[in-house]
Amino acid sequence: MDISVVVPLFNEVESLPELTSWIDRVMEANRFSYEIILIDDGSTDGSWELIEQLCLQNTCIKGIKFRRNYGKSAGLYCGFEQAEGHVVITMDADLQDSPEEIPELYRMITEEKYDMVSGWKKKRYDPIFSKNLPSKFYNWTARRMTGIKLHDFNCGLKAYRKQVVKSIEVYGDMHRYIPVLAKWAGFKRIGEKVVQHQERKFGVTKFGMERFIRGPLDLLSVIFISKFSKRPMHFFGVFGTLMFILGLAAAIWEGSQKIILTLHNQRAPRITESPYFYLALTAMIIGTQLFLAGFLAELNVRNSTDRNSYLIDKRTNV
Ligand code: UDP
Ligand code: MG
Predict the structure, then answer these.
(1) pTM, 2 dp
(2) Name one GO biological process term (predicted).
(3) Considering every ligand atom, which ligand is closest to the CA of 131?
(4) If you take atom 19 of ligand 1, which residue's CA is the nearest one?
(5) For residue 64, is pLDDT > 90?
(6) What total of structural domains would you count in the chain?
(7) Residues within 5 Å of ion ligand 2 by Cβ?
(8) CA distance 185 to 148
(9) What are phi and psi of 258, to 5 degrees?
(10) Which domain holds residue 250?
(11) CATH of residue 115
């Protein structure tokens, strides 16, 4: 099979007929063998009943229904698990992404040998203040922090070599950072393609203000996990030691002042009168805490079942 199109959806009943027939048209025109995997993320608007009907009309369409709403990442995860196509394409169900992009994305993966190609909604048809501007800032931060030169990390329209989706595990709200997960799994050829974007025709956006809190926090997690998840002590240990040394130095300074003054028979002020004393105390406590956190995290890593799971690219004679 050439292409699996993975579509996570939540209450998108109005868009589905047009979406599936449009994808089908593009696939037929280009003679691709394909499947469309629709993952109903706990819809309550009759999306699933419609999917069952669509599946009867077209056997290339497959449906999975969650019992409740788990989020877009969960949908993608199950779609990736199911996908059999040589190239896997993800797109949103709301018709904001155009199926016309599929042939070119497919070509970039198969001929230009990209591991993954991410869409870039260069001209974007979403509300300026609630979506476009925050998204620009967020993408800039993500670029700086991950070193991946993409303009639109969270674009729903993306294409992957099959091996990529089988090697990464999307969970929580991590659909925003799939390029980071891919890079971290050792897939370095990550490309970008400017894609057409439309205004939402039916329904409403499923991501409200909570994404302003979750997005940045998840970015921090992704970066921390990718750098330190197998060696947490290198993070906590460094900061813990620095803090402790700072505290100790301040304490020694304070103590020696007092001793020197006493040796010269002068009345030394109480040690609790100095701000350095409190700084020293706090720094040493925080330093110890960080160190302990490091040890606990190391223990966790030691006991985790995937402490020795590596993605093997090739083997010979084994
Ligand atoms: N979606 C989903 N589960 C959710 C929220 C969203 O499967 O809990 C799907 C949604 O139906 C759509 C895609 O994820 O197909 C992108 O959502 P949306 O268009 O609302 O996001 P926006 O384009 O506004 O960022
Ligand atoms: Mg949308």
Answers:
(1) 0.86
(2) lipopolysaccharide biosynthetic process
(3) 1
(4) 205
(5) yes
(6) 2
(7) 92, 94, 96
(8) 14
(9) -65, -45
(10) 233-300
(11) 3.90.550.10
Two structure tokens written together for 245: 């040394």
What six digits make up the tokens of 168?
A: 């990464």
Residue 180 in tokens: 């980071």
Looking at the structure, tell me whether residues 217 and 241 fall in a common domain.
Answer: no
User: How far is 138 from 141, CA to CA, in rounded Å?
Assistant: 5
Longest dimension (CA), the chain: 98
Same domain for 311 and 292? no
* Helix, strand, or coil (residue 158): strand
Q: CB count, 10 Å around CB of 316?
A: 4
**Which residue's C-alpha comes closest to atom 11 of ligand 1?**
9
- Amino acid (one-letter) located at 132: N
Percent of the chain with pLDDT over 70: 100
Sign of CA dihedral 170, 172, 175, 177: negative
Q: What is the pLDDT of residues 177-211, one digit of tens each?
A: 999 999 989 999 999 999 999 999 999 999 988 88
Q: Over 90: is that where the pLDDT of 155 sits?
A: yes
CA 91 to ligand 2 center in whole angstroms: 10
Give, for 254, the enclosing helix (H) or strand (E): helix 233-263
